[in-house]
Design brief:
Keywords: Signal. This is Integron. The chain is of the alpha+beta class. The chain has a single domain, classed as SH3 Domains (SH3 type barrels). The protein is 15% helix and 31% strand. The chain has 1 helix and 9 strands. Strands 8-6-5-2-9 form a 5-stranded antiparallel sheet, with no helix packed on it. Strand 3 and strand 4 form a beta hairpin. The radius of gyration is 21 Å and the shape is globular. The protein starts with a helix and ends with a strand.
Length: 137
């Protein structure tokens, strides 16, 4: 017969495992959408930036595109020096960007009737501001 005393260690172990789950799954946070069209009458993404300052020899050589405005979010993609990014959103030191690896029209160069989460045809995500310089806008 199993008593409550026998179950106690298993219950404590289960509680410890559950307490550790949030820390282990930080990169699994829900994605934060990039919102375009926040300034009525202006282009949906009013500024173009260029990736610069990455060190391909001594550093990573790429800028991580993340699912949200923090290094705790999952990495979605990589961009490199010279890539052009449409800057649509900002949260602290993180920029919400829309970009294409080809020369594709992403549909953010004209005004939108209202602000909305970007959902294609190009890529979108969040990059750290330090490595993006103003290009136009």
């Amino acid at each position: 017969m199993v008593t409550d005393r026998d179950r106690r260690p298993a219950g404590i172990l289960a509680a410890l495992i559950l307490a550790c789950l949030p820390a282990a799954s930080i990169a699994q946070q829900s994605a934060v959408p990039v919102i375009a069209g926040q300034n009525p009458g202006y282009d949906a993404c009013g500024t173009v930036g260029v990736v610069r300052g990455l060190d391909p020899q001594g550093g990573d050589g790429f800028l991580a595109v993340r699912a949200g405005p923090s290094s705790n979010y999952a990495m979605l993609d990589k961009v490199y020096n010279g890539y052009l990014l449409n800057i649509c959103d900002q949260r602290g030191q993180w920029l919400g960007v829309v970009y294409s690896h080809e020369t594709q029209d992403c549909g953010v160069g004209t005004p939108w009737p209202r602000a909305a989460a970007y959902n294609g045809p190009c890529n979108s995500g969040w990059v750290f501001r330090k490595y993006v310089a103003d290009y136009a806008g």
